[in-house]
Design goal:
The chain is of the alpha/beta class. Helix content is 26%, strand content 24%. The protein is built from twelve helices and 20 strands. Strands 18-17-20-15-14-13-1-16-19 form a nine-stranded mixed sheet. Strand 5, helix 7 and strand 6 form a beta-alpha-beta unit. Helix 6 packs across helix 7 and helix 11 runs parallel beside helix 12. The longest helix is centred in the middle third of the chain and has 19 residues. It is globular and about 70 Å long. The chain starts with a helix and ends with a strand.
């Protein structure tokens, strides 16, 4: 008696040929370092809630690698956590020219001492992440501490394109970062592996308040700060790596985009030996790496691939690596209605999964992070939080977006190597997209997106032997399908419409 799957496959085969995907075992690509998200703005409130059960639920969703009795993952197992090292706008209150929900505390006080009770709620989530096995931590700064800025604020209201840091305070800022990194390890037991001194210093970003902390910076200013920070880290005997430069737009890495020459062409500016004044390739604590954000370059869809392939080739030309460190939905993401209004469904989840696929497969990104872990009524949080008292308390609801990221982060672990995948079908960003990885333990993992509205017959196998036997984990709009284990397969299977399925070798 034939099984239901066999009947379905037979019926489908009469209509369309199965998509056959082959993992090319002789064609390794980049090594995956981690997948992550940030504590941006939300955790300073959530970490102070009295409801510890709700905090634990959020932490489990984000960080846990455990499964329930049925083998269903309890969380998405993020492997890097981005910590927003604050600039002190919170202490300024309404004088900060920054919206209350996006202000941050600063560990440094006006008299030059450090207050280790500050950023306590954010640091609680650092510890909760570590308790659940998160292996890597990245600190990022949107602004220098307000005590060092030209206008005394954490937002550059002048918008003249230069760094909001007084000339005489570069060494003070570097010392602050070193002391903060060392202090967080001493007080919280968290080693900060990486630090990004500047965030989105280029492109068209609007730093005028009231909005959020931030400042532009020229490439020369960034190079000066990075070199001074490296000297300070050597002095304090820190091994934290210094990352450049969290660009706001991939186009700024490759050329000049909505800015001037002082803030464009950042790959060649920092890593070409011809750029004598700004070359960072021989600077201690600076890895051969560029980090940037995927905003604004995900549409039109063919362009999403084109610019990432340009980025991949340029990164390779200079012998570098690339990390994508931040993304959420923006106004130009018109296919899913832009960023306004939270979406719990597969619409946003699939859209973002397609971006992840492009970043990993066409840009050779070695790390991939979403913007903030928890948000409100906007498509910027993996988790949606509800509060009636200005975030003094509340509750959280998960989303298909969070679990879709988990199709990657939960199963592709640090040290996994991506391998080339070929197919009998032409690449279709509105159909099936497949990427494959081999974890450090030797097991194969493939993430398969079915963007289409129809059932798709699908076969996965290795180039040097028979089809893989894999356990499947699926995320879709079907009730309960959030990384749900759905059995094993060897050979041909069927991909449900509008779904993401992770194949894990048995």
């Amino acid at each position: 008696m034939r099984t239901l799957l066999t009947l379905v496959l037979t019926a489908l085969s009469a209509v369309c040929q199965a998509a056959d995907f082959t993992i090319q075992v002789g064609q390794p690509r980049q090594t995956i370092q981690h997948f992550g998200a940030s504590d941006g703005w939300s955790m300073q409130f959530i970490g102070a809630w009295d409801n510890e059960a709700e905090q634990e639920k959020i932490a489990d969703w984000l960080f846990s690698t455990r499964c329930d009795e049925q083998g269903k993952p309890l969380g998405i197992g993020l492997s890097v956590w981005r910590f927003n090292l604050g600039a002190g706008s919170a202490e300024q209150g309404n004088e900060a020219h920054i919206q209350p929900g996006t202000r941050t505390e600063c560990l440094l006080t006006p008299d030059g001492t450090y207050d280790w009770t500050r950023q306590a709620a954010q640091r609680k989530f650092l510890r909760m992440a570590k308790q659940r096995g998160v292996p890597h931590f990245l600190a990022f700064l949107n602004s220098p501490p307000v005590y060092f800025t030209k206008n005394g604020l954490a937002t550059n209201t002048g918008r003249d394109g230069t760094f909001n840091l007084r000339e005489e305070c570069y060494d003070d800022f570097a010392r602050f970062m070193g002391t903060a990194v060392k202090g967080i390890e001493q007080h919280d037991g968290i080693h900060i592996d990486y630090i990004c001194p500047v965030n989105e210093p280029d492109g068209h970003w609007n730093w005028q308040g009231p909005k959020q902390e931030g400042t532009p910076a020229t490439n020369r200013e960034i190079a000066r700060l990075v070199r001074m920070t490296a000297k300070e880290f050597q002095k304090q005997r820190l091994n934290t790596q210094i990352l450049v430069n969290e660009s706001s737009d991939l186009r700024c890495l490759l050329g000049i985009y909505e800015t001037t020459w002082e803030r464009g062409n950042t790959i060649s500016t920092f890593f070409s030996k011809d750029s004598v004044d700004t070359y960072l390739g021989n600077t201690s604590h600076v890895p051969p790496l560029m980090v940037a954000h995927s905003y604004w370059t995900n549409t039109p869809v063919p362009y999403m691939r084109e610019i990432r392939e340009q980025l991949r080739d340029t990164i390779a030309k200079y012998g570098l690596h690339y990390w994508q460190t931040e993304l959420c939905i923006m106004g130009n993401d018109e296919e899913i209605g832009g960023g306004g209004g939270y979406d719990f469904t597969m619409q946003t989840a699939l859209y973002v999964a397609r971006v992840i696929h492009h970043d990993l497969v066409f840009a050779n990104a070695e790390s991939w992070s979403w913007w903030r872990a928890v948000g409100g009524n906007y498509k910027d949080g993996l988790i949606r939080v509800y509060s009636n008292d200005h975030m003094r308390s509340g509750y959280a609801v998960d989303s298909r977006l969070m679990w879709a990221l988990g199709n990657y982060s939960r199963f592709i672990r640090p040290g996994a190597v991506r391998y080339e995948v070929t197919s009998t079908n032409e690449f279709n960003p509105y159909g099936i997209m497949c990427s494959a990885y081999r974890n450090a333990d030797g097991r194969w993992v493939a993430v398969v997106i079915n963007y289409s509205e129809s059932l798709q017959p699908f076969t996965l196998h290795l180039s040097d032997r028979a089809p893989l036997t894999c356990r499947l984990y699926r995320t879709s709009d079907v009730s309960g399908e959030t990384l749900k284990p759905i059995g094993t397969v060897s050979g041909q299977t069927v991909l449900p419409p509008r779904s993401i399925t992770t194949f894990v070798e048995e």
